[in-house]
Design goal:
This protein has about 180 residues and is of the alpha+beta class. It contains 7 helices and 6 strands; from the N terminus they run ββββαααααββαα.
Length: about 180
């Protein structure tokens, strides 16, 4: 339903509504004499299906979340771990499991992993670029599509969860510096 008009006259309620019955782009013009630029107030309404609208809202939410991420901000260990747990649950848990034990040999454990506990640059490169390991039946995909903040958070989470206790907070600027 669209609210096409609502007048604020004391003691009166003036509303006009309509429910579109087809998709498309519809154009109109302001119907009130509302000021000097009244003639320059075009109205354009784009009616889409519920599925298209839901997809559009999801895309806008994702863009807003990424725009809110600040690559230059210094995040605390706790902030990164909290965000990283969500990123891990959304992207990593299927292969590496909530316990961090993985499903060897196809999906290696992260708990106690030499990659996770080794130099942070190695883990950043693995997550950013993916890896194909000789002798294993699968490869890890690149996660470069995630934001620098998301990657810093998930790497910080894996380096400080389960039995891994590095105490390191990987900052988004470190991810940005290693992108190729």
């Amino acid at each position: 339903m669209f609210g096409a008009k609502q007048d604020a006259i004391p003691g009166f309620i003036r509303d006009a509504w309509f429910r579109p019955d087809r998709t498309g782009t519809f154009r109109s013009q302001c119907v009130e004499l509302c000021g000097k630029d009244h003639g320059f107030m075009p109205i354009v309404v784009r009616v889409v299906s519920q599925e298209d609208y839901t997809k559009w809202v999801g895309e806008k939410k994702a863009l807003a979340a990424k725009a809110a991420d600040d690559d230059t901000k210094i995040y605390t260990l706790e902030q990164l771990k909290e965000r990283g747990e969500k990123v891990f649950a959304a992207n990593c848990v299927a292969c590496h499991q909530a316990t961090g034990k993985g499903m060897p040999p196809m999906f290696p454990p992260l708990d106690g992993s030499k990659v996770v506990l080794g130099p942070k640059a190695g883990q950043i490169d693995t997550v950013l670029n993916g890896v194909v390991r000789k002798g294993t039946p699968t490869a890890m995909q690149s996660w470069a599509r995630l934001s620098n903040v998301e990657l810093a958070a998930v790497i910080t989470f894996t380096r400080n969860n389960w039995g891994n206790k590095t105490g390191e907070a990987i900052q988004p600027a470190e991810i940005k510096a290693r992108r190729k």
